[in-house]
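Sample entry as discussed:
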Amino acid sequence: MVGDSVYFLALGWAAAQIGGPAQVGVVMAVGAIPRALLMLGGGVVADRFGPRKVVIGSDTVRSVLILAVAAVLWLSAPGLWVLVALALLFGVVDALFMPAVGALPARITARGELMRLLGFKAFVDRFGRLAGPPLAGFALGAGGPEAAFAAAGVLFALSLVLLITVRIPGVRPDSARSDGARSARAGSGDARSDEAPSPSGRGGSVLRELRDGLRYVRRHPVVGPLVVSGCISQVGISPPLTVGIVVLGEERGWSPAGVGFVLGAMAFGAGVSTLGLAVAGRFPRAGLWATVTLLVASAAIGAIGLMPTVAAAAAVALTAGLVSGLCGGLSSTLIQANTESGYLGRVSSVMAFTAVGVTPLFFPVGGWAAGNWGAASVFVVGGAVSMAASLLPLFAREVWHAELPHKR
C-alpha cells in the first residue's frame, strides 16, 4: 500500500514535468481504464490458477516495471509515451493483483481467525495510504520522479519477498462453510479445497467462468445481498467524500488543512474500529450489526455536509469512521467466510470493480450536483442512497442470522 501511494504520486508528478499539467489526467486515465475493464477477468484468473501464483506473478511484474522506468528516467529524458506505457501495463497487472490478493485471506487462515486477519489488513491498508504520500514527497524532493519510482519499485520488491513466504495451508473442505454457500452452488460448480483452483478452470472459457461467478453472487443468500449493498453504498458515499468535501470546504471557507482534518478524522475513526475488530476477533450477530452500522454510518456521512464548522464536521466524520470501520470489517469477513474457495477471486473482483470501475463514473455527477445545488445536497443525497443500500440485506433472512466463524 505504501508502494502504491508512492507510485501514483510519482506518476502524476512525472507526467506534469514531462507533458505539463494537462497531461496528468491523461496518464492517470490510461492506467484506470484497463484496471476497470479487466478487473472482473482478473477474478477469473485468480480462481483458475490460484490466487497465490497470481499475486506473486503480478507483484513481480509491477516491481520490474517500476524499477525499469526509474532507470530510464535516470539515464535519459524520455517522452510522455514511457509514462503512458507504464500506466497502461501497471493497470493491466493491477487488474490481476487486486482480485487475487482479495481472495487470499480466507485461504491462509483458520476460519475462526478470519476477522482478526481482515481487521489487521484493513488497518495496515489505511496506514499505508497515510504513510505513502510523505515518503513520496521526500523522494520527489530528494531526487525527482526517478527517485520516487525507485523507492516504489523497492517497496514492491520487499512486498514480493514477504508474499513468497505466504503458504496456503492443507486442504480445508468447503463443507465448513455456511449452508447458504451450499445453496448457491446450484449451477455454479462444486466446492474444492482451498489449495485448488476453480474446477471451471479446466477448459471453461473466461466469459463462462465470469458468468458463473456473477451467478454465484446473485444466488448466494448471504454473499449476494452484502456485495450488492456494499456496491450501492460506495456509489452513494464516494462522491461526497471525494468531490463534495472539496466543494464544501470552499463554500464554508475552510482551508485545505481543514478539509484534510475532516477526512483524517474519518480515517482515524475507521482505523481504530478495524483495529478493535482485529483484537476482539469475535462479534456476535455480525450480519445484523453489519446492516445496522451501514445505516448509521450512511446517516453520519450525509450529516457532514450540514455541519457549519470544521470542528463539527470532524466530530461527525470521526463518528462515521468508527461506525463504517465496523461495517466494512463485519461485511468483508462475512463475505469471505461464506464464499466457497473456488469463487473467492471472482467475488473479490466484483467488489474491486465497483471501486475502480463504477464509483468513479459518479464523480462528475457529484461535481455537477454540487455546482448547481451546493455541496450539502451531494452529502445528503449520497447518504440517502447509502442508507437505502443498507436496507437491502433486511430482505434477506440469512443475513440477519449470519454469524462469524469462531475459534474451536
User: Anything to note?
Assistant: The longest helix spans residues 114-165.
